[in-house]
Amino acid sequence: MTRTLDPGGLAERSAPLPPRLARIMRPELPSLAEEIVAEIRRAIPEYARPIDGPYGHVLRISVEHSLSAFVDRVAAPPGTPAVNDGSAGTARMLGQYEAHEGRSMDSLQAAYRIGGQVAWRRVMKVAPRHDISSAVMSRLADALFVYLDELAALSLEGYLEARARPIPAMDDRRRRLLHRLVGEPGCDVAEAAEAAGWTVPAEVTLVAVEPEARCVWTALDDDVLADLECAAPHLLMPGPFTDARRAMLDAAVPGRRVAVGLTVPPAQAADSLRWARQALSLALDGVFGDEQVVLCEENLVTLWLLSDPALVEQLTRRRLGILDGMTPGQQDRLTETLRTWLVTRGTAAEIAELLHIHPQTVRYRMRKIEQTFGEELDDPEARFGIEVALRAAFLRSRRPSAGPRRPTPVSHPVPKLRRLK
Question: In 3-state terms, what secondary structure has residue 187?
Answer without folding.
Answer: coil
